[in-house]
Design goal:
Blueprint lengths: L32 H9 L3 H23 L2 H18 L10 H17 L3 H18 L6 H4 L3 H8 L4 H12 L4 H8 L3 H19 L4
Helix pairs in contact: 1-2, 2-3, 2-4, 3-4, 4-8, 7-10, 8-9, 8-10, 9-10
Length: about 210
């Protein structure tokens, strides 16, 4: 008697994880910013394009917060990426994060632009102090706020690179601890520690008592 051929076992669906991927699926990950910067330093235009896509929105928001004007902010953003392209070799991951390095460049360019006119300098001074008082309550130091900016710049040289990154964003940019942590890609507690320790160094350098 001829036997009927066995029915083909239907293929069972593979189980999938919470992210929707099945075991064996290849996960596509983007290279970290530090790796992109390393490749940019070697003249890799594709890496530069990727770096722009990853950080342009963040840097533009930082610049616009200082400059206020949209069109000028766009110009400053282009200048920032030109500087990043030219000086990517200066980035040292041992001294700070890629986020922090680029944010420092962006903020410095923005402040230089604001200070190019008398009216902009007044706005930078008045709104900068107000932002610190309102948004960085734990960092505001009334004595330091009254010190001439040049003395502060000189005193900043005594800070470590991580402290300087955090202080520049908090003191000059008016960002809160949580915002500083997000910009630098570090825990909020770490951001608070860097800001607090940096302010201690600044008080000592400037001779400001608590």
């Amino acid at each position: 008697m001829a036997l009927d051929p066995p029915e083909e076992e239907s293929e069972r669906p593979r189980s999938r994880g919470p992210d929707g991927r099945a075991p064996g699926d290849h996960e596509i990950t983007e290279p970290p910013l530090s790796e992109l910067l390393r490749r940019v330093a070697q003249g890799d235009e594709d890496a530069f394009s990727g770096l722009y896509d990853e950080t342009a929105s963040l840097l533009f928001a930082l610049i616009k917060r200082v400059v206020r004007d949209v069109s000028i902010s766009e110009e400053v953003l282009q200048e920032v990426f030109v500087e990043i392209w030219k000086h990517a070799t200066r980035f040292d991951s041992n001294r700070g994060s890629a986020h922090g390095w680029m944010c420092t460049i962006a903020h410095r360019r923005a402040v230089d632009t604001v200070r190019s006119t008398d009216a902009a300098r007044r706005r930078d001074s008045e709104e900068g102090v107000r932002a610190i008082e309102e948004e960085v309550v734990d960092v505001q130091e009334e004595g330091i706020l009254r010190i001439e900016s040049q003395r502060v710049v000189t005193a900043m040289r005594a800070l470590t690179s991580p402290q300087s990154e955090a202080i520049r964003l908090a003191y000059f940019g008016g960002y809160s601890h949580r915002e500083v942590a997000a910009l630098l890609g570090i825990p909020v507690g770490t951001a608070k520690t860097r800001i607090r320790d940096g302010m201690i160094v600044l008080r000592e350098s400037l001779g400001v008592t608590s």
